[in-house]
Structures are given as C-alpha cells and as structure tokens.
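User: Here's a chain of 329 residues. Predict its fold as tokens.
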Amino acid sequence: MKWVRFRIKTITDMEDVIISTLYDIGLEGAQIEDKIPLTALEKEQMFVDILPDGPEDDGVAYLNFFVERKEDGSLIVQDETLSVDAMTEKIRAELEELRDFCEIGEGSIAVDETEDLDWINNWKQYFHQFYIDDILVIPSWEDIKPEDEARMVLHIDPGTAFGTGMHETTQLCIRQLRKYITPETELLDVGTGSGILAILSLMFGAKHAVGTDLDPCAVEAVAENCAANGIASEQFEMMIGNIITDQTVQDKVGYEKYDIVVANILADVLVPLTPVILHQLKPGGIYITSGIIDDKEQTVVEAVKAAGLEGLEVTYQGEWVSVTARKQV
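Assistant: Prediction complete.
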C-alpha cells in the first residue's frame, strides 16, 4: 500500500487551527512534529521513568497528513478522485485563506510518498487508558484493572473520527454537561466526532441525544462506540451535514427541541454557529461551548451575548476555555 504525505510547515500556535481546517477537506489523523515541551500528563503517558531533555522550542511545527495513493496515482478524498497536484492546491487554498486573518508561519507544503504504513491503526500504540476525574476512559484493546471496576467506564475507539476525551476542550465540556444533565435531557452534540460527549451524556442519565458532523466517518465511529458502551441505537441519532448553512439539516435536527446543545468546535466556527443554534434550544436551554483557545474567549462571549443568550459560566483548563450560556425563557 502506498501513501502520499503532505507535510506543512507552520507555527505551533496554529497546529489545532490548521488540523481542524484541513479536516473539513478530508485530511485526517495529523502527525505533529514540534519542540513544545511535554506536559506532566504527557510524560506520564509515555510510560518512561526518566525522559531526556528535548531541544528548545523554536515555535516551528510540521503537520503530516497521509492519503492512500491508488494504482493509477490518484487519491480518493471524501469520495472524490483527485490528483496529487489538485489536492495540494486545495490545501494551499485553505492555508492562504487562513493567512488572510492570522499568522500561519511559512505555510509551505512538501509532498512525498511512502508505503506499507498502517496509518489507520498505528496510532493505537499511543492511546492508552486514562482518567477524566472519576471516569475511566479505555480503548477496546486494553483491560480494566481490578481497582477500576467500580468506576464509571467509557469504552472509546475513535478510529478515523476525532475524539478520545484526552483533549482539554473535551474534558471542559464533560464537566459542564455533568452539571446540567437530568433524566429528561434532550441533547444535541454539534461536531460529535467519535460521539464521546453525547455517549457520556447518556451515561450521565440524559434521555436522548442527536449528533451532527461533517464527516461521514463519524457514523461508523458513533455506532461502534455506542455498542461498546451499551447505548441503544434509538438513544443516539446521527446526522451528517453542516447545521450552520444547510436548512435541511436544521429542519431535520428540529427547533426548540433541546435542553442542552454542546459544541466542542473552534471559536471561528462557534461565532456563526451560535445564532443558528439558538433556534434548536428550548427556552431556558443550556448552550455549552469549547474548543476555544484563551485569546478567543472574548470573541465567543460576545457572540453569545449578541445572540441574546445569558452567560452563565466561563471555565478553563490549560490554555483552553469553555463558555456556558442559557437561552432566555
């Protein structure tokens, strides 16, 4: 099996933004190379007692994306057949659009070819069980330790969809969801990915969940993770499409139906999403957002206020922010 690698040189501050932007055009599973020092948690997850000192952080990052190359040299991306040159131009266009409103560094794209790499499964060697407060998050290829058997256990295999629960933004959402969920909660998870937020909400006692995502891979990931956690198919409904721009998706999701809407997406997406999602919330419904880097906090807070929502709480973890608001009754 042969793969084409698209290698982008950027700056560390833009890693998450570029990854999310290129995810929307079908590039998944970024391999990140940078010199940012490991956090204490990351060092624990390396399962090494003493780690050598790394090089000094220079602010430069390389993002590597791998796409399978067919026998005729073409690529299949989001069910579209493209040449390597055409895919390169799509990436360049996205980067140049980002460059119009933020610094992305060099933004160069190098293209090369490699083979016999199982990029869908190799990431599993880096994903191990961990804890979110009192919740054990564990992949299917690991066993629950005897001392953890009394814990709430979330079985999660993200596969090709985003979402393991390890990221600070996901954990911020989980803590907020836990505060507001009741046995009558109807929940909408925008950008559901692997389904982790909606599945945990159902485990916390929510009545029903709907998830939306742009990526068709989310459907299979959600179905597998629901089955692994004993969530019945009728409890969690998945829809593919852009709820911000697609009236059909908005209609299918429904209006004034949801006690809670959660959106763990970048701030630049939350701004146009917020006035739309207002119509899906019931009066008095709770809107939980994250994916917000700290310098974008005020942007999201202002978008929430502009939509007529009442700000309830802003919470923090690391450099990430969660904004929780309520729709007026």
